[in-house]
Write a structure and sequence with these properties.
Shape of chain A: rod-shaped
CATH topology of the largest domain in chain A: Alpha-Beta Plaits
Shape of chain B: globular
Strand order of the largest sheet of chain A: 2-3-1-4
Strand content of chain A: 5-15%
CATH architecture of the largest domain in chain A: 2-Layer Sandwich
Structural class of chain A: alpha+beta
Order of helices and strands of chain B: HHHHHHHHHHHHHHHHHH
Distance between the termini of chain B: 8 Å
Largest sheet of chain A: 4 strands, antiparallel
Structural class of chain B: mainly alpha
Largest interface: A-B, 64 and 64 residues
Number of strands of chain B: 0
Number of domains of chain A: 2
Number of strands of chain A: 4
Number of helices of chain B: 18
Number of domains of chain B: 1
Oligomer: heterodimer
Largest sheet of chain B: none
Distance between the termini of chain A: 19 Å
Strand content of chain B: under 5%
Helix content of chain A: 40-55%
CATH class of the largest domain in chain A: Alpha Beta
Order of helices and strands of chain A: EHEHHEHE
Helix content of chain B: over 70%
Radius of gyration of chain B: 24 Å
């Protein structure tokens, strides 16, 4: 699930524990909500319906490119541009080129994983509408939030608020639409 | 079901039942505030330690300046002992750097939950140890400002690094390891920096931690991507634990020198590296645990686990020592036999050899005893001995092999100069300074992981109580 678009406003509810949030999420999914996002201080396992990440494929391709590039650089430098005969060893020395190739593979794959995750999560993003909720800063400490985009098919001013209150959260908040 | 539970409760006597992974009555908010407290308040002890480490850093800067200004003739190195203290320091520091990735990546993939509260400290140690390590070969170049000659770039003279030599391999291995370690460390930090941002008492700190936290909000979307990336980085860092010190060992084993030319070197070096790294983790963790009262999250279980690992690695290292000597004898080669059977145990550096053997082989045997595995004083002293022993091991490998090689007429004694000692002491000072700054300004325990573990343990305990109640 993508992070919410926030174009139509949001209904958010606060919970005191991970269990309550997970239970609430199950209820909402059963009711047919789809545009729901969670916020939690710890990784919520199986809480949100996340699509399969594209990151591993990007990392694999980056590793492949890194490995091939590392090998080609060595081949160009030592076998093509300036071959040196040291003790009669072949200029194109495959076993010797293996180690920098391995390092190049790992380096490029790791860089792809690191920058890829920030690309996919659109971080750094220093402002987000949900930060406007008073007390949201406790989400990185011990509070759990759930937000429903107002554009959700099932969503409607009264229905959503009613559904959220039925989950007995700590409180329910309505965030107005922004242009973010 | 009920009988199984009863049996485990009465008969099994493992570390798992003996000590909890976490203890204490703090809830998530109290735990967060407790673990973040060092970020908001200083202590006189910390200030004093920082002052001492700054003096060490000044010594480092001074000896580096002296080396660069006057050349490496100021070191004790000679021909044939062209490698000595600097390479010993390099191999020692880089070895220490292995435990961080071992704990945070290797043990993550093996699903060892106890790593959660100590991985941050170990990762920081790795990054700082690698910074020390990289400086030594750089200085050893003699003209460090030409270090970029080791990097393949289109130079006007069309001269390239020789990739058939082990030294460019080293550059590739260390650069990659350092980069991946920093990325892994920072990625792990982002959610905790967000906690620091949200708990910061002053506006200035909010802004600073806010900038480095990148606007993390802990959404399900972020967490899902984050976990994938973190596991991927762990999987990528794991082969590096094995490869980096293997490549370092190739610097030696590719040469034909007796005492270096050995196929056991890569695994032998990797074992020694993780061994010394775990010892450094203990040396850093025990004072930290006391100073910041981390008894809730760093329990006897962690100390016990690290001590057991050190025992296992110590035994593997002992095996390597024995096999090296056996193979030297079995080879029938006179120079090999001389190096292992005469020069090392009875030559000019025999004292270093024997202290090394006692420290590295005998010390870890203490950890057969459960009481010693969790005794802070024993663990600390044993770890210091192991660290010293591992430094001596590299000294013995490098200096005893070089100072007496094939040609008796070229034998030469080596003794370090004050610059050599200054660089070693200075690197310890610089390392300590970086580590002290780290524990003061960066969350030194992985908050999000510890909290997740707390939730999971509560669930497990509740399930366990339920089973017992029904039984």
């Amino acid at each position: 699930m993508r992070d919410l678009s926030w174009g139509h406003g949001t209904y958010a509810a606060e919970f005191a524990s991970a269990d309550e949030l997970a239970a609430a999420l199950r209820v909402l999914y059963d009711k047919g909500y789809t545009r729901v996002e969670t916020y939690s201080p710890v990784a919520m396992t199986n809480a949100a319906r996340e699509s399969r990440s594209r990151l591993p494929i990007a990392v694999f391709i980056a590793g492949l490119v890194g490995g091939i590039a590392s090998y080609l650089i060595q081949w160009y430098a030592n076998a093509y541009a300036y071959p040196l005969d040291i003790g009669g060893r072949p200029a194109h020395a495959i076993p010797a080129f293996f180690i920098p190739t391995f390092e190049g593979t790992v380096l490029c794959a790791a860089l792809a994983a690191f920058f890829g995750v920030f690309w996919l999560t659109r971080l750094p993003t220093y402002w987000h509408p949900i930060f406007e909720i008073e007390g949201f800063d406790r989400t990185s400490v011990d509070r759990y939030w759930l937000a429903i985009d107002a554009s959700d098919r099932r969503s409607g001013p009264d229905v959503t608020l009613h559904d959220l209150r039925a989950l007995s959260p700590v409180r329910v908040v309505r965030l107005e639409a922004t242009n973010a | 079901m009920s009988t199984t539970v009863r049996q485990t409760a009465t008969t099994a006597d493992t570390a798992r039942e003996r000590w909890p992974l976490m203890r204490g009555t703090r809830d998530a908010a109290q735990l967060t505030d407790h673990l973040l407290r060092p970020l908001w308040s200083s202590s006189p002890v910390w200030g004093a330690l920082l002052a001492v480490s700054c003096v060490g850093t000044a010594l480092f800067v001074f000896t580096i300046t002296w080396t660069v200004a006057k050349g490496i003739g100021t070191w004790g190195n000679n021909i044939p002992v062209a490698w000595a203290f600097a390479i010993t320091d390099f191999v020692w520091w880089i070895g220490i750097g292995h435990a961080g990735t071992f704990i945070s990546a290797f043990l993550l993939l093996l699903n060892q939950r106890w790593r959660g509260s100590i991985n941050r400290v170990a990762e920081a140690m790795t990054v700082f140890a690698l910074m020390q390590a990289a400086l030594f070969p750089l200085l050893h170049l003699g003209r460090p400002w030409f270090f970029y000659w080791l990097v393949p770039y289109p130079a006007t003279m069309n001269v390239w690094p020789n990739f058939k030599s082990a030294l460019p391999w080293d550059v590739a291995a260390v650069t990659t390891y350092f980069t991946v370690s920093v990325l892994f460390w920072y990625l792990g930090l982002v959610p905790d920096l967000a906690s620091a941002r949200d708990r910061a008492p002053t506006r200035g700190r909010q802004v600073i931690y806010g900038i480095v936290a990148l606007g993390w909000r802990g959404s399900g979307h972020e967490w899902a991507r984050y976990r994938v990336a973190y596991t991927l980085l762990a999987a990528l860092a794991t082969p590096l634990v094995i490869s980096v010190h293997s490549v370092v060992s190739l610097d030696f084993s590719i040469a034909q020198l007796p005492g270096w030319h050995s196929t056991i070197f890569p695994p032998y070096f990797v074992v020694g590296a993780i061994y010394s790294g775990l010892a450094m983790v203990i040396v850093l963790l025990l004072p930290l645990r006391r100073a910041f009262e981390l008894y809730d999250v760093v329990t006897e279980r962690h100390l016990d686990a690290i001590a057991k690992l050190m025992l296992a690695l110590g035994l593997m290292l002992t095996y390597s020592y024995v096999i090296e000597i056996f193979i030297a004898w079995y080879s029938g080669s006179a120079p090999e036999r001389y190096t292992y059977l005469v020069a090392r145990p009875f030559g000019p550096y025999a004292l270093v050899f024997w202290i090394m053997t006692i420290f590295n082989v005998v010390t870890p045997q203490l950890f057969w005893v459960r009481r010693f595995r969790t005794n802070g004083a024993v663990l600390f002293l044993a770890s210091v001995a192991i660290l010293a022993g591992m430094w001596m091991e590299r000294f013995v490998i490098i200096v005893t092999s070089l100072n007496r090689d094939f040609l008796t007429s070229s034998w030469h004694f080596y003794s370090p100069s004050w610059v050599d000692w200054g660089l070693l002491a200075g690197s310890l000072g610089f390392f300590s300074m970086l580590f002290l700054l780290f524990v003061r300004f960066v969350p030194s325990v992985a908050l999000s992981e510890v909290k997740a573990l707390g939730i999971e343990l509560r669930e497990t305990n509740a399930a366990h109580r339920e089973v017992v109640r029904r039984a």
